[in-house]
Specification:
single chain; mainly beta; Neuraminidase; five-stranded antiparallel sheet; four-stranded antiparallel sheet; globular
């Protein structure tokens, strides 16, 4: 699904339920289905956290999940998701930079250690995902000189491969995002001076090559663990700091449109929210989210903000049942993961008219299934999870072949 910048003219920021863990910065996160996950980080000083929480977009509620067992939970680990599995890794242990990686199992609420990064341990690295592969760029080992190496993690084989170095040089605290089959990395601090770097680069995964794109509009590009979320073909960068005078934040958000190949300002959090750095950002469907961080005077935050159209009458179910569908949009093969107290369950899939087009029975309280919807036309569809006729969860997905 492609959008132009004009598609977002009616979007706005809406505050959602506050993160229920302790306020923090340097946290990490990922998404699975209509859930956002946030955890790790610290309180801006000497208290460090390994607890993790999930936010349900359908019910606007937070729940605690199994704590993160990795070494680098103190601050600035990386977080990403691939095919319905969340990953957290690297980060600062309190005395050195970690190189371990852990995968989160949504159904069983558990973590599994994966292959460790063969290269130097690091924190403040940038990460983007294309397909079933994550690309980790640069980072810090505790101060300059920073790193410029690039490592690719293949989730299908649980292996790492070193790629060509980043042309940005040795940078730390950069922002990264994925649009289509390309990754984008820019900003951050360079090792040649105390201020930030505003060059941006596009990465082609098929040729392992980099090309320069329009630089970020602010001369001193966002640092401070800046984050971005992506909706359609547009990336939104709206948190970070403008220089090394931590924690001064920049007041204007900018978005990059792959159609115009240009940056344009958009409504930042401003007076309604709180300008901040050191945040967690994630995307669920056509909504972007910013959570936690540090404001311009050093306050540690626990709020969650949503960027998107204002939706009323949202589903407010709170049954204790967890459901994730992915990928969304999908090309026809839909993964459906669920857990909770389900005794006589069924999944109904309907089209826009309400006609039931698929029906599946569930015989366990926890599971994962692949639903083949290749026969469906492109468009929006809805699912309902019921138990003995009682609605437990509902949502929507998009077929986009």
């Amino acid at each position: 699904m492609l959008f132009s910048l004009n598609s977002y003219s009616q979007y706005s920021w809406t505050q959602k339920s506050n993160f229920t863990g302790a306020a923090r910065d340097y946290a990490a996160g990922f998404t699975i289905g209509h859930y956002g996950f946030v955890g790790a980080g610290n309180n801006g000083a000497s208290i460090f956290y390994n607890d993790f929480y999930e936010w349900d977009q359908n019910t606007n509620t937070w729940s605690s999940i199994a704590p993160y067992p990795g070494a680098g939970y103190h601050y600035s680990p990386i977080g990403f998701s691939i095919e319905g599995v969340g990953y957290i890794g690297l980060g600062w242990t309190g005395s050195n930079a970690a190189n371990d990686l852990w995968a989160y199992d949504f159904v069983n609420n558990s973590w599994k250690q994966m292959a460790s990064l063969p290269g130097t341990g690091r924190y403040d690295a940038s990460v983007f995902v294309v397909g079933h592969k994550a690309y980790i760029v640069g980072g810090s080992i505790g101060g300059p000189p920073y790193l410029q190496d690039v490592w690719m993690y293949d989730a299908h084989t649980n292996t790492w491969t070193q790629m060509n170095n980043s042309p940005a040089g040795r940078t730390d605290d950069g922002v990264a995002f994925t649009i289509g089959n390309h990754g984008y990395v820019g900003g951050g601090k360079d090792e040649l001076g105390p201020y930030a770097y505003n060059a941006f680069w596009e990465y082609d995964t098929t040729s392992d090559s980099w090309s320069s794109i329009a630089p970020f509009p602010i001369l001193y590009s966002p640092t401070g663990n800046s984050r971005a979320f992506v909706i359609g073909d547009t990336a939104f960068v709206c948190t970070g700091t403008t220089n090394n005078s931590d924690p001064a934040t920049f007041p204007t958000g900018y978005c990059y449109d792959t159609v115009s190949k240009a940056w344009s300002p958009f409504t930042n959090m401003g007076a309604n929210g709180i300008e901040r750095g050191y945040t967690v950002a994630f995307t669920i469907g056509n909504f972007g989210y910013i959570c936690t961080g540090m404001d311009s005077v050093g306050n540690i935050l626990n709020d969650l903000w949503q960027w998107g159209p204002v939706i009323t009458g949202a589903n407010q179910l709170n049954t204790g049942v967890r459901v994730a569908i992915y990928p969304n949009p999908c090309k026809g093969l839909l993964n459906f993961a669920y857990s909770g107290n389900i005794q006589c369950g069924e999944i109904q899939i309907t089209d826009l008219t309400g006609r039931i087009i698929d029906f599946r029975q569930i015989n366990s309280s926890n599971g994962r299934m692949i639903i083949d919807e290749n026969s469906l036309d492109n468009g929006m569809y809805f699912y309902k999870l019921l138990d003995s006729g009682k609605l437990l969860s509902s949502g929507k997905f998009i077929i986009s072949k």
